[in-house]
Write a structure and sequence with these properties.
By secondary structure, this protein is of the alpha/beta class. It has helices at about 1-20, 30-55, 60-65, 70-95, 95-105, 115-145, 150-155, 160-175, 185-205, 325-335, 360-370, 390-395, 395-400, 410-420, and strands at about 210-225, 225-235, 245-250, 260, 270-275, 295-300, 315-320, 345-350, 375-380, 405, 430. The strands form 2 sheets. Strands 4-3-6-1-2-5 form a 6-stranded antiparallel sheet, with no helix packed on it. Strands 9-8-7-10-11 form a 5-stranded parallel sheet, with helices on both faces. α2 packs parallel to α9. The protein is elongated and about 80 Å long. Pfam families: FAD_binding_8, Ferric_reduct.
Amino acid sequence: MMRMIFPFVVLVLGLWAWNLFAGPGAGSPWAVYDQSLLLSGLLSIALMSLTMMLALRPAWLERPLGGLDQIYRTHKWAGILAVVFAAAHWLIEMGDDVIESIFGKAGRLHDQDYSGFIDTMRDAAEEVGELAVYLLFAMLLITLWRKFPYKYWRYLHRGMPVLYLLLAFHAAWLTPLQWWQQPIGLLMAILLFGGSIASGLSLTGRVGRRRQVRGMVTAIKTPDRDVTEVTCHMGPAWPGHRAGQFAFVTFDRIEGAHPFTIASADRENGTVTFLIKSLGDFTRNLSQKISVGQTVNIEGPYGCFNFDRRNRKSHQIWIAGGIGITPFLAWLEALSSATDATVPEADLHYCTRNAGQDPMVDRLRALCDGFPGIHLEIHDSSKGQGLSAETLSTNGRSAAGAEVWFCGPAGLGEAIRNGLRAAPFRLTRFHKEAFQFR
């Protein structure tokens, strides 16, 4: 996340500093006020522009940032920071009376005189900007309020491109004219143009369209009460995938796309399988909402949760919780079907609520039987066999200097990661996907 946001903010601050002392009255209270107002507004619109461009799901950024999940984390936090700076911008704007009561009007820079049309547009930009900031605050609160239903939030979130265009209008008309002759103006133009194009693509439903393939549901199974296994045939248009990747799947246009990990290795025949757990309104009783033969749209593949990227000198620890076993099933299947693949030495830990009733346990054992170097451990919470960092730490041979790959509940992942950080040895890497796109 910070590998993009921090350099980006440094770049914006550097170009702002280029112009800092160029204006009259530098160092006076009113100059500080004006520059603070400009800087907060600049950081807000810059980060909001970055947020909109990252929403295009740029596949070329997956490798440097570590996957689409990390791109979305960057998108989320860039948006949150944009709202924070927008709040600071609004508060500074509201504080001019306080500055005047303390320091008086001496040294206050007068607004530049403009023609009637420009003056009218600047007034409109101020009003539009104030309205957009209030809407931005409301959107942030709704986003952070986890109890707000996702199905309603998703429709509200589709209005963000319109909100961005209002903020871009505000920023373009109220940016100081001298900025457009400086590097900061060039940066502003690039960001506003890129953010506006991204907004247009989003509003017209063109995000990810080039990576979308239409196929057909060929099989539906319910291996568990809360799990639906869906097999889709996408034909020759499917570009293939690496084990561990995910895709956005649309069974219903009104419901929209949902991200699901691909549970099968690439068979080079256009067939993909998903294991979908009941976690929301749409996925609950999914087998009754879809049917064999119906059309399905799949966008992808995305993600860098790929064991080919492992550190081959480190011992492997693979940890899965619940439906998080999906990418590891694809890994094992890919190893089974590949004749020239190097099978890694790995400890695979699967955490389940009830091993006796979990159909994935037998599937895992069957897949692991062919690989002597992969040691499977089942952690049955119904028998008090939960997995923790302490459990891993007791096995110094496997944990010290190991590379950990985790997929499962966020709480479990953070607990294990924090516990291993406190251990008296160091890990090579802890890799997990952040599937909370909201």
